Amino acid sequence: MELRGAVVLITGASSGIGAASARAFARAGATVALVARDAGRLRALADELGRAGGAARAFPADLSAPEAVETMAAEVKDALGVPDVIVNNAGAGRWLFVDETTPRDFHAMTAVPYLAAGYVTTAFAADMVERGSGRIVVVNSPVSRAVWPGAFGYAAARWGLRGLVAALRLDLRGTGVGVTEVVPGKVSSAYFANNPGSEERVPGISAVVPTVTPDRVARDRRRVMLPPALRAVAAQAWLAPRATGLLMSLTGAKRP
């Protein structure tokens, strides 16, 4: 897709993969719609991109609320038009065992990223299909291929994202709107700092998957879409789910 002059909407744009992607798309000549809850950080990033010669607008929104997403979508359409690319990147959630998880915890973990991606995608899908072009990108996690212990809500939400991608691919076939799922390994962002206690629960087997930077994910999306080590894990999980579960149990978090 030609990015110069395109409109790219990125959720979770205030930091990490989202901010790095915004910089990459702006350098390519796209106009970037920055979406996240933190209005101050979004506006600071928009100013940064503007000083570098890029074009960006901040659209603060709580993506866990469908009404807020509808308002944000209307503002984006009025200001920039229907996006050519949507990057569903917003993600959050501490890694907790199910018996450590409250109903409110579970709602928060599934609202973002799973419901947020659904809300944002449906807010623009009809316009993209009518236009006959566009691309919807979903940033997912390795846990969507092989679940590990101690991350109940996080794993459930990421498997939900995997189902969302599969459903989108079938529904959008032949419309001109493409779907891409990006599943990098561990990313050296502020995610774990923002979700204390989670990094300690990364399973030991994850050492076979290289850690990548947000800039690497943004710059080289095709190579990190599903890295070779993750493809091997995904294949093993598909062919031998019980063995994979045992491996994750043995190398994963132990009940506190």
Structural commentary:
With 256 residues, the chain is α/β, with parallel strands linked by helices. It contains 10 helices and 6 strands; from the N terminus they run βαβαβαβαβαβααααα. The chain has helices at 16-27, 39-51, 66-80, 103-131, 152-171, 191-194, 214-219, 221-224, 228-239, 241-251, and strands spanning 7-11, 31-35, 55-58, 85-88, 134-139, 177-182. A 6-stranded parallel sheet has the order 3-2-1-4-5-6, sandwiched between helices. The protein is globular and about 50 Å long. The mean pLDDT is 89.
Question: Top keywords for this entry?
Answer:
256 residues; alpha/beta; 6-stranded parallel β-sheet; 10 helices; 6 strands; 49% helix
